[in-house]
Amino acid sequence: MKALKYIALVVFGFLWFLGCSRHTVVYLVDNGWIGDDFRYGDLYRLSNLSDYRVPVEKCSMPYKGAKVPVTLYLAGDSFTEEGRVNRDQYATDRYFRSFVSDPQVPLERVPGKKILVIETVERHLRERFSEKPWMNWVEPSGTDPVAPVQEPFSFRKLYAAIVDYEVPYREEMHESVLFSSDFILKIKELKADFNYRVFGRVDPKVNVLKGELVYDLDVAPGISSVYDTVSEEEIGRIVAHANATRRHYRSLGFDEVYLSVIPNKSSLLIRDEAAYNHLVERVEAHPALEVPLISVWRAFAAGNYYRKGDSHWDCAGQKIWVDQVNSILKSAEN
Questions:
Q1: How sure is the predictor about 146, in pLDDT bands with cuts at 50, 70 and 90?
Q2: DSSP states of 153-174 as a string?
Q3: Domain that includes residue 240, residue range
Q4: Which residues are CB-neighbours of 134 under 8 A, at least 6 positions away?
């Protein structure tokens, strides 16, 4: 019995550790120990509806030409994160990236020509530009960082950290480890399909719009909704703050600053509806906009470039965007 207790302690301790260590979970996924629960898309992961269970295609599209001596700084969201768009796809090896939502990122400075691209999905454009310019990348203060004071270990502080959720435990990482196998997913599908087809219910984070799976955030009441009314005054503020962002980073030595707003999948499904607020189109067409654009709106409106069970672009859609970035990098060399 004592041996069983110790075995149980080790097993549950390891499971708790997996809920805290993203690197360990990524290692287990990369080496085939557990399934990647995003392998059928982020929207399928939430809904588990069988109609949207389509494997996510890995895009392998390295840039084939000669690399240019221009530094690309990219502040982006999940559309351009590493693993979805890889650094070898760009026409330069000089590349820095952070998430556009990260606050106060120290700006790494290099000599030579520098291009800054700010990429954001449509649903977050208003929250990122309506109230103030985007200035999350800051120049280092020039002072040496102060070393943190090392306090002695105590079990009381460890307990307080766990109770106050300071230990980086994430329940979704536990779910990835325990419930991401195809067998478990099939059980989830049976339940999800029954709830949808019999009761018309899906996971509250998603919505079925014109036969396509989208984030509920895109269509539910609120600032992120494609149906939320956006006044001309607010469009003007977004444009003014985008212009101020450009002026700020050009004053720091960037040769140019570009804005790229990726349309929601939901926007392209309802673009002809009167209730759609046409946020991207109105910002991009505003006469006062000074920021050069990397725009995919027209191209995306002409075809379906989104994955079946995912909110992100497919390989063809990704290539449309990357080709524009590379064209800018190559023209900046001259």
A1: very low
A2: P-HHHHHHHHHTT-S---HHHH
A3: 71-139+220-332
A4: 75, 100, 118, 128, 241, 242, 245
Q: Which strands make up the sheet holding 71-76, listed edge to edge?
A: 95-99, 71-76, 114-121, 256-262
> Which CATH number is 230's domain given?
3.40.50
Contacts of 69 (CB under 8 A, 6+ apart): 92, 94, 112, 113, 333
In a domain, 118, yes or no: yes
Cβ-proximal residues to 244 (8 Å cutoff; 6+ apart), any chain? 133
Q: Nearest-5° angle of CA 236, CA 265, CA 314?
A: 120
Residue 193 located in a structural domain: no
For the chain, the domain total comes to 1
In a domain, 42, yes or no: no
DSSP of 279-319: HHHHHHT-TT--S-B---HHHHHTS--B-TT-SSB-HHHHH
Residue 144 has a pLDDT of: 45
How far apart are the C-alpha atoms of 158 and 164, rounded to whole Å?
Answer: 10
Residue pair 226/276 in contact by the 8 Å Cβ criterion? yes
3-class secondary-structure state, position 118: strand
C-alpha–C-alpha distance, residues 261 and 104, integer Å: 21
Average the pLDDT over each of 2-16, 218-232, 302-316 and give the range with the smallest value: 2-16
- pLDDT per residue over 228-258, tens digit each? 999 999 999 999 999 999 999 999 999 999 9
Type of residue at 114: K
Tokens standing for residue 137: 């990348």
- What is the distance between the alpha carbons of residues 272 and 282, in angstroms, rounded to a whole number? 14
Spatial separation of the C-alpha atoms in residues 192 and 195, rounded to whole Å: 5
Give the tokens for residue 71: 């530094």
CB–CB of 296/262 below 8 Å?
yes
- Copy the structure tokens of residue 263: 């349309």
Report the C-alpha gap between 264 and 266 in whole angstroms: 5
Q: Which has the higher per-residue pLDDT, 131 or 26?
A: 131
User: Is 293 domain-assigned?
Assistant: yes
Q: Decide if pLDDT at 154 tops 70.
A: no
> What is the DSSP secondary-structure string of 47-74?
H--GGG--PPPP------SPPPS-EEEE
